[in-house]
Write a structure and sequence with these properties.
0% of the residues lie in helices and 50% in strands. The strands form 7 sheets. Strands 17, 18, 19, 20, 21, 22, 23, 24 and 25 form a 9-stranded mixed beta sheet that branches. Strands 1, 2, 3, 5 and 6 form a 5-stranded antiparallel beta sheet that branches. The chain has a 5-stranded mixed beta sheet with strand order 10-16-15-12-13, with no helix packed on it.
């Protein structure tokens, strides 16, 4: 038999679902009954733990069973109640003895990641929330729901004797202001306790940062690339950024002093707030090849909840131009000319 206890008070009413032969005492909705109109209506009770009494209900065949929680042992099978219906000399008298669990504690509930109670938390739409309920005896159900740009919920019911239940809910596809509700109930359906219902308000960020590369977009050999610069913005705030510079001809990346094999990401400063102007000044004119080439520049920004956005531009390096200049012809006596046989050159 299993019982349910009302919220803590000087007395508790035991509830159960227990049915037997009509002439046998039974617990039904907190009452001890002796059939329906079957004589005799006399009841007596003994209790090994706690203080229990049978109270009249207005119906001569029924009594309400009320037990004080003082002295009862939570979560133990040592609480025994014996109920006798009928006079001691009545051949039809019956006795019911039962052992039961007494549940003193409501379940506990946690959320991970927990937005907290401040109301100003920001979570990524990539996040998944998990509600976990724990009970000393057995859980009945754990539920979680979120109301935002849309609404969704998820529940899990416990199997017999389950003391821990977890249920997950993805925020994918949601955005903006959000309200979370999570609920846990145990097998006796405790109600009205703050531990059972958690409510959180927060903001769901579904937008990645926006990145732009402004300059330079081309370069000349012998001229220094003073800096690569651009902008970055995000609706909740920027946290950090990095830059990758790839030489298309060699497949190598700039590491701050030379092009080397393997992908290299270098940090760039100045990325904070909702709008930032960034600059990377780590390139040197010495690395600009005379034959020209193409550098792929990728800048990635990360916002406060871990979402990333990036942009890629090419820096096109024009090759040095060598111009062949012919030698002017010589003037021969008699007005003739001698064809040029050589020349000089210069670089531009």
């Amino acid at each position: 038999m299993s019982y349910r206890g009302d919220p803590p008070s000087p007395t508790r009413v035991l509830y159960a679902n227990y049915t037997t032969n009509p002439i046998t005492p039974a617990y039904t909705g907190g009452f001890v009954t002796y059939g329906s109109g079957v004589y005799p209506p006399n009841f007596s009770i003994t209790s090994q733990k706690g203080s229990c009494v049978l109270v009249g209900t207005g119906n001569w065949w029924a009594r309400e069973l009320i037990c004080s929680y003082v002295g009862l042992e939570a979560g133990q099978n040592s609480n025994v109640i014996e109920i006798r219906a009928g006079n001691s000399d009545d051949p039809c008298a019956v006795t019911l003895t039962d052992t039961f669990l007494w549940d003193e504690l409501p379940p506990t509930l946690t959320i991970y990641p927990d937005p907290g109670t401040s109301g100003d938390a920001i979570l990524s739409s990539d996040a998944t929330l998990t509600a976990t309920g724990i009970d000393d005896l057995a859980l009945s159900q754990v539920c979680i729901s979120v109301e935002s740009s849309g609404s969704r919920s998820n529940c899990i019911s416990g199997s017999s004797g389950a003391r821990t239940l977890s249920v997950a809910l993805s925020l994918s596809g949601l955005s903006g202001a959000a309200t979370l509700n999570a609920y846990a109930s145990d097998s006796i359906h405790w109600c009205g306790y703050p531990e059972l219902l958690l409510t959180r308000t927060f903001f769901i960020d579904s937008e990645p940062p926006q990145v732009g590369i402004v300059s330079p977009l081309d370069a000349d050999p012998g001229s220094a690339v003073v800096a690569i610069s651009g902008t970055a913005s995000d609706n909740v705030g920027l946290a950090s950024g990095n830059i990758r510079i790839l030489d298309e001809a060699t497949g190598m990346y700039w590491d701050g002093s030379a092009f080397v094999p393997g992908t290299v990401s270098l940090p760039i400063g100045g990325l904070s707030g909702k709008l930032a102007f960034w600059s990377y000044a780590g390139l040197s004119a010495a690395v600009i090849p005379a034959e020209g080439g193409i550098w792929d520049v990728t800048v990635e920004a990360t916002d406060l909840v871990g979402k990333t956005g990036s942009a890629t531009e090419r820096i096109i390096i024009r090759p040095k131009v060598v111009v062949k200049v012919p030698t002017p012809p010589e003037t021969c006596p008699g007005g003739g000319t001698n064809a040029a046989t050589g020349g000089s050159s210069y670089q531009n």
